[in-house]
């Protein structure tokens, strides 16, 4: 059996992260941004940038759909909640700390 490459392991970990986020509709993007400094949109953007670096054209919406598992508009309609004042304050504080 051939030893998996670092790229294969990283790809598997990325797929698992995406699947986890697709299953956790209760976790809002603002919560991810507050705690981790990135969200599903960031992952989609990074995916699109990685494709561009390899000569592949991938639209913003298409890249984000791969992360969300559905069109972003549909995800927002089904799962996104309005940010609370507490979340907005925590987000603003996190932005200042991580600028």
TrEMBL record:
Residue limits of the SMc04008-like domain? 27-92
What name has this protein been given in UniProt? SMc04008-like domain-containing protein
Write down the Pfam families for this protein, in alphabetical order: DUF1244
Q: Where are the transmembrane segments?
A: none
């Amino acid at each position: 059996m051939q030893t998996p490459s670092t790229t294969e392991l990283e790809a598997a970990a990325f797929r698992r992260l995406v699947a986890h986020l697709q299953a956790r509709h209760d976790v809002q993007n603002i919560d991810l941004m507050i705690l981790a400094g990135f969200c599903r949109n960031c992952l989609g953007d990074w995916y699109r940038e990685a494709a561009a670096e390899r000569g592949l054209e991938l639209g913003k919406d298409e890249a984000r759909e791969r992360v969300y598992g559905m069109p972003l508009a549909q995800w927002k309609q089904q799962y996104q909640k309005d940010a609370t004042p507490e979340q907005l304050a925590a987000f603003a504080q996190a932005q200042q700390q991580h600028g």
